[in-house]
Amino acid sequence: MAGRDWRKLDESDVRVRPGRGTRPRSKRRPEHADASTALVTVVDRGRWTCALEHDPSRVVTAMRARELGRTPIVVGDTVGIVGDVSGRPDTLARIVRVDERASVLRRTADDTDPYERIVVANAEQLLIVTALADPPPRTGFIDRCLVACYAGGLEPVLCLTKADLASPDELLAKYAELAVPAIVTRYDEDSAELAERLKGRVSALVGHSGVGKSTLVNRLVPDAALATGVVSSVGKGRHTSVTAIALPLPDGGWVVDTPGVRSFGLAHVTPDDIVRSFEEFGEMAEECPSGCGHLGPPDDPGCMLDSTVEDGTASEGRLVSLRRLLASKAGLETPGLGQQT
Questions:
Q1: Whole-model pTM?
Q2: Is 27 inside any structural domain?
Q3: SS (H, E, C) 9-31
């Protein structure tokens, strides 16, 4: 300021540096019309492993684009990716789009946990893998998986393993009224029926530890162990047995192997969600009192579902099966086969 009279200065002599945020942010986002479509096969702490739609054998590691914010991206999601999609080591692409999901398999840690965990997206069917012996079948777990399927838009399939140790007849009879497809397998034989059921479809497998799920996956995908190792090295080192992984089937389609679970919480599912999956009860359920759990007397004395059996709209067996699922969701004891949890 030396040599200048400060009294002769005015605001025109001051250069004001614009601060942050003075320029309005545009709400327009890039369309990314050139994005490659891919399937998310593994999620590992801020990195997503994706298989390109036009070349499923090419594995690309990607990060979530900034414009997606905290948009959840899970195994089974169909996404758009840009950047380096060569799949070469040490390359990284960006996920810029997450397509609408056709189905979602959700669970919570328990029935009091408000936080939903998405197990897999866009699976067409869920194979509920249950051993007929060693360990014994847990019908409560099966029932809860069925509820999750009905609520999430997946087709349930019973996959009964270890038929060389016990007969499946009693367990199959228990679910006959629900018309759930069932496949029975043995440890000492490959199952052509199972391979045909999975061919060309996206299927998820869920089951307790020790029921033979890993044995099934290794038979369906001969290089499953190799693929798992490759994905582990691409990610940040986490062993993939603790998370879901989508594996390509030799004859087309994908199988999503999920980690063994101890419980299948359904805090996010309401009784009405379950009833809506049974078309013959849907209309009459609307006549039930508000807050009805549809369990019938004495728990829900005003429930109208019994009238569907009286007028011939539904069979008594279907109603019994429906209420067994509702009771399982409510955490109530139900008579049945094997362990309930």
A1: 0.80
A2: no
A3: CCHHHCCCCCCCCCCCCCCCCCC
